[in-house]
What does this fold into?
Amino acid sequence: MAQQTAVEWLIEEIHKNMGVWIPQHIQEQAKVMEKHQIMSAYDLGNQNQYNKICISNYVNIDEEQHYNETYNK
It folds into this structure.
């Protein structure tokens, strides 16, 4: 099951609790920005972990693949 991102949760809560619709283009821009932040953080963590263990058979999962698998996008 895919996880909900913080931006998706916030958009849902604003609509549900305040009855306010955020324009679609703003929602999409926020989701794109969050996706890039998640992928950058994953990539940085992945690089740090690799530097710590320094093994030749290290499996590197691409940050885009991680995002898509985690958030089913």
